[in-house]
Amino acid sequence: MARPLRHMRLTPSLLLAAACIAGAAPALAGYNIWTGEYSLTRQELQTELDKRFPATLRYAEVVSVQLSHPRLVLDEASNRITTHVDARLINALLPSPPVDGKLALNSGIRYDPARRAVLLDNPTVQQVEVAGMGPYREQLNAIGAVVAQQLLKDYPIYTFKPEELRVGGKEVEPGAITVGKDEVRVEVKQR
């Protein structure tokens, strides 16, 4: 005779079967039902950022700046993202060798509802490194500020698909954005 359900014990095999059934249900990629947040991994963000590089910017037909090899760092303490890039300055007027350096560009993050995208916000130059070329540091710093605005300002690091903004049959919208050690978490709330 079968026991009533209220007296059934949760055995390890029963728990495993329940987990398998729950795992078979479709889930939204990156959405955590328990916390109500989307998680954007460092690798997903790096892949999106890689699409923006290499890039070459020209200034007054005099200086050309080649930017390559972006490296993303998530700064949990300041809730910001830092992008390290290699930079090469080439002066078209002077017959001199290119000047190599590195830039660290620091950005906040915000959500743009019209684009359904998480964007880099207000990028600034955090650090400039030019090996053995002290006189070029100031120029690279000035150029870095322009690079930050032209290349990274309002750059979408993640764009939500329309179906990702529907959870449980209800419309949701992104809220608070938090930078973690290995991910960016985007809270979602009902409209």
TrEMBL record:
- Alphabetical UniProt keywords: Signal
- Give a single Pfam family match: DUF1439
The answer to whether the entry has keyword Signal is yes
Top-rank lineage group of the source organism: Bacteria
Q: Which PROSITE patterns match?
A: PROKAR_LIPOPROTEIN
The residue range of the signal peptide is 1-29
Q: How is this protein named in the record?
A: DUF1439 domain-containing protein
